[in-house]
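User: Hi! Is it possible to get a structure for several chains at once, not just one? Here's what I have:
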Amino acid sequence: MLKHKHDHSVCIETALEAAQKICEKRETRFTPLRRRVLELVWRKHQPITAYEVLDLLSEGRKRVAPPTVYRALDFLIEEGFVHRIESLNAFVGCSDPEHKHQGHFMICTKCSNVTEMNEASLHSVIERAAKENGYTYENSILEIAGICANCRN
Amino acid sequence: MLKHKHDHSVCIETALEAAQKICEKRETRFTPLRRRVLELVWRKHQPITAYEVLDLLSEGRKRVAPPTVYRALDFLIEEGFVHRIESLNAFVGCSDPEHKHQGHFMICTKCSNVTEMNEASLHSVIERAAKENGYTYENSILEIAGICANCRN
DNA sequence: GATGACTTGATATTCAATTACAATCAGGGC
DNA sequence: GCCCTGATTGTAATTGAATATCAAGTCATC
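Assistant: Yes, the chains can be modeled jointly so their relative placement is included. Here is the combined structure:
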């Protein structure tokens, strides 16, 4: 769960270092481009669209093309460093990249902050629902919209 | 829950008549265009994209423009006759248009058939999860991907 | 038949994502 | 070192998804 008050530069650094280490372990390549994209995703600390990433990535150098961004995002999602929010066509950094998992989110409709829910109970209920409907479970997305505690005050 | 073997033309008719009646009761306008779009959605009986609807709608007459389709779909969603599947950018007919509700779905990754889940238990679990995370619940989407009973055999 | 609200048509544009192909880079074997 | 191979990135073009804007038509009501 994301906190609202924290040293954000530290939080970015932590995510980048974690990604670095995981890639070393898995022997996948955490290239400068991929690192940079992950950094941009974390820097916003809210859902960011692919084209926002594209704009930020293009600052200072020749404008990059969409595939550059989408490929990097695909890699980061594949590795579990980033989740895609279907209802927003946007991306967020994953708070628990070590363990691959589904994205179950709360999204504040006022401030756009996203809270990732890593609740086993929720997951088991969803798997059970799938079974009861005769499905072999593969994966799921859950996106709950609401007002966060911060915005209600 | 959708059955696989049924008289599909009857099933379309039923949906159209239900929509007609609900609109009369609510005093909203079930125009020929809206009726036709709802018919096309039901006719496919699987998730259908806006541009597929557009193509079908354009058959025989001058090609319609995207806003025509999106406006009709917006109306149908607003009235609860159609749901949007976020993970597919596609639309399906609602199996229970009388009662407005969230879309909670199972999607078969083989045959693309969709099963709508109207389970109160699932809904209450989701609302509870929102509360526990400090959110005031507004709405939610749940889309579970898996293999349906039919395809597993 | 004039008014105003709603609906549809038409044009253009923005945003989201992918295809296809070329160029570059990194590491392994010789 | 040099070549080979596969992965990564660059580039151009295109498709798909959705919206903004304004014009034209429909329809009940006064």
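Strands of chain B lie at 82-85, 90-93, 104-108, 114-116, 136-147. Helices of chain B lie at 8-26, 32-44, 50-58, 66-78, 120-132, 149-152.

User: Great, thank you!
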